[in-house]
Amino acid sequence: MIKFDSVTKTYNHSNQAIKNINLEIHKGEFLSLVGQSGAGKSTLMKLIIGEEKPDSGRILIDDIDVARIRSMDIPYLRRKIGVVFQDIKLLPNRTAFENIAFAMEVAGERVEDIKSHVPKILETVGLEDKAKAFPHEMSGGERQRVAIARALAHNPVLLLADEPTGNLDSINAWDIIQLLLKINKDGTTVILATHAKDLVNSIKKRVVTIEKGEIVYDQEKGKYVL
Length: 226
Known about the structure:
By secondary structure, the protein is of the alpha/beta class. The protein has helices spanning 41-48, 74-78, 96-105, 111-124, 140-151, 170-185, 197-203; strands at residues 2-11, 15-25, 30-34, 56-61, 64-65, 81-85, 158-162, 189-194, 206-211, 214-219. Helix 3 (96-105) crosses helix 4 (111-124), helix 3 (96-105) packs parallel to helix 5 and helix 5 packs parallel to helix 6 (170-185).
């Protein structure tokens, strides 16, 4: 599904964030991308969604070369990809329902489809009773669930989660991991970028460890070894 073919990305002509990365991620896989802050995890995520372009190499998503896609086609690519960040960025004056609905509205979805689809997404993330709640009325874990629900608004084939548990306590963090595993079980490919060692070791899925922009370990049912 995703293939990095000798990908390198450099910032400011000297800071080599990604160095000759070769990586394949298969459809339906759950992959934990681990490493310390600054290792290159977020850069990999940005390259996948076309927010950054590689200096060399190719990034293929279903045989589409993201590095060479036209700017006007990037929004269509991103509809296939849901993204969740540590910085949740919910709209504060909109309810959980409205936050999810807004993501569909800007994509031109029909009102009828929004009204029928949003409740199903809220049920998927276990927040059907929070549809009318505003972000300030929810816990950190609940807000992150709304962010995940928003990322699922377009039924993406790929979900990128960049440090989604970074601001959560251990109980809420594990709840979010369980939700991501559920989404993956339903068929969505999930890439989790994190440096939370205990969480990764509990997942027992594929682990790719990146250090100073290079892949140093790639283990099926692996562990965070750094």
